[in-house]
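hey so i finally got around to running the thing on that chain from the lab meeting. sorry it took forever, my laptop kept dying and i had to restart like 3 times. anyway pasting the input first so we r on the same page abt which one it is
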Amino acid sequence: MFKKILVANRGEIAVRIIRACTELGIKSVAIHSKADEDAMHVKMADESICIGGNLSKDSYLNIPAIITAAELTAAEAIHPGYGFLSENARFVSILEDHDITFIGPKSEHIEIMGDKIKARETISKTGIPLVPGSKGDISNLNVLKKTALEIGYPIIIKAAAGGGGKGMKVVQDESSLLEQYELAKAEAKANFGNDQVYIEKFLENPKHIEFQIFADKYGNVIHLGERDCSMQRRHQKIIEEAPALNINSTAKKKVLKAITTAMKKIKYIGAGTVEMLYEKDKFYFIEMNTRLQVEHPITEMITGFDIVAEQIKVASGIKLEIKQEDITFRGHAIECRINAENSKSFQPSPGLISAYHTPGGPGVRIDSAAFDQYRVLPYYDSLIGKLIVHANNRELAISKMLRALNEFIIEGIDTTLDLHKEIISSKEFKAYNYDIKWLEEYLAKK
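ok and heres what got predicted. didnt touch it at all, straight out
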């Protein structure tokens, strides 16, 4: 087991990782920007070191500074959390050259799955079904038009190096194809430094279902069930729940077998999430995230499996102690992402939190780095924290979530608490009658 781990992140996920380190008896090192000097993850870690200025490029994305911090503090491993450098294959390769363990998969897997075109090519050989789409990068306008007609409108143009909804454009017919294609390429270039794009069939009313897998260095692969992440705005997840309901059991078993077989074949290591669209009893692969997901707590709540602790154990060379037949699924869990944003305009709302009180009680979990008099900074993601509840069934989980949302007090800034109350109270959510389009259509009617 490692003796010391550097946490290459900030906010709630850095706090989550430090807690896991503490419980495992491992010393933790927090890195931070100048602006984050008084942040919760800095207060909680055994050691901390400032690695740069306020902007992410000067601190949390500053690879030389992070490696120097690891060497100065004698950290044996680095946990990247999510975002920032968590899916940066170059970063992993550099760590390998410096004999520092990356708590995550191999650089080759990050590189393959980080390039959505390479990911499609790899997955197409595994038996996991794909959304109909182009075989590679679309760089020729004639090929663009021809492929779009073959697939059939509507289509969606996606950045090869994309994520977080950036570089994605839905095209309803050929009249806007060229314009949206150029916009997608420009957005991809601006956000990822890579303007390669590909196209897929745009499914009309799918669910967004993702499968959590976990693997060790000895070829053992397990799955931890699925999560429903369909409640989205502009391809950004707002609310997640586990397990998904009303899923065709035969289709689910088939896709899970294909996923676990594929992960064994490519010798994947650590936590990973295979994201799929589900429509008319069929699953379609869209991407694989080679990192810890923001929504991992709901899986932990229904399985009792500590994903972060197991990430650390597996990276240190420990064999998975649990087999698939040992995994049991209990009850229902829901997660609400609480952001420092206006509930109506979605404008970011950085500033001082003048009052902060979290809900409690059985089955209520808060993953957050905020506190009373905490200042939400304008330089980073607007996520304040995640409110997670667990109950024996979905109906009870909804009731518990509403109670917890009403107890949650955050004053001084705008938050999305009211939006969550509204969604959870809606008849469509209560009836489990929503897909990836529902929230945007609901907001457009208001």
